[in-house]
Input
Amino acid sequence: MTRERWFYAQGHQRRGPVSLAQLVESILAQLDPRAVLVWRKGLAGWTRCEDLPEVERRIVLPSKTDGAQEGVRHARPAEPVALPAPARATGRGRSVLAYGALGVVVAVASLFAWLLWPRSRSATPPQPLPLGGTTAETAPAVVMPAPIPGVSPPGRSALGSPTRAPRPAGVGSREADLPSSETRKLRGVAVWSGDTLKLTVYNGTGWRLTELYVRIGRFKRDDLVEDPRPILLLPPVGQVDAGVDALMNRVAPDRKKPGLNPLDTGLFQGRVGQQPESFRWEIETARGYPPQ
Output
């Protein structure tokens, strides 16, 4: 039987391979063992320990109250103490008690009124993300580049309030490479289907996208091997015969190729080979028509 080889994350580094027993011993030494990310062959991706029954049931954390409970279990019961009889309330004491009870009633009534009072309808509902979901927890797996200082995310103003996305201006007639600052504004979700990689892209730039060049890294057992050159992804309608494309370039050199408009979401795809067990991807460069 093949011995399972486990990997786990410590800080920002991957550790392993180790056996299951060594894995449990290593994650117990970390601050929050159940939140440690682990992986082995057969898992779709890195997974928290608490989501894997085979690992979670082996994590036994010492309870801070074990010693106190043991002391209580063997403690002798306290002997009953005779309490003095309650003194009879005088007239002044009865008045104080009455006012105190009235204050409690008023406080409870105020609390119920606050809880039952209808809320204002001016609260802003959660805004959907460009590629689905309403929060970071419900959004699909997205590769997000680092935020650019001073640039607000699409659909929100600098103060964080929702804004209507401006209509994109016209685009030029000459295709060119996107600057790296514009390429970093692209967002995407990748799905491998057969030998084809399908990338759903949100175009947060002012350009009309026509081509994407994606660098793919494929996991081979425990190693990540990157492709020697990026893969070209095109819109499905943009994949035409090379001879027809060359003829159209001679007949109509200023024609606009099929692409993705600014502030819109669309599909790019390309044949990349057999699907590996796991992979990583990154948009390296892109081409399109710049804003006028």
